[in-house]
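Notes from the 1:1 (GR / supervisor)

We went over the backlog. Supervisor wanted to see one worked example end to end before approving the batch request, so GR pasted a single chain during the call. The sequence is below; no edits were made to it. Supervisor asked that the structure be written out right there so they could see what the output format looks like.
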Amino acid sequence: MFDNVGGKIKVLAKVLTGIGIVASIISAISIWSQAGARYAGPSGPYIWTGLLVLILGCLSSWLGSLALYGLGQMIENTDNISYYATRTYEMARLQNNGDSKPKSAPTPAAQKSLAQAGGNPPAHKSKTCPKCGEIASAMYCPICGTRME
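Structure output shown during the call:
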């Protein structure tokens, strides 16, 4: 139900646009048919009113769906960014630590220490990279990727 939310929002935007366009077409035809029944033929004001409803209705349906479709696209892009950032982090961790496979979850001891610390990992002070000399506060050097000891 909550998988691929961005894709579902984009489909919803397309469906709502289609419904709005069809409703505009039906409304315009209805206006034109009422004019024909009242005046035994097309009448100028009703033709223009129906045309205006048709054009503005279709245009507003399309413009209204752009924001909803854009939201769906942003959600998909955010999911992709999160996925690739996680993969990049895991690859860097494997490269720097020499592990053969990534860990799927923190160990119970790590979970306990994080819970005692209020759920936040310990803060790192600025350190100098032993390999390239870069000063950083991260666990790994942002330049060469070496673990900051």
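Supervisor's comment: Residues 123-149 form one domain.
Batch request approved.
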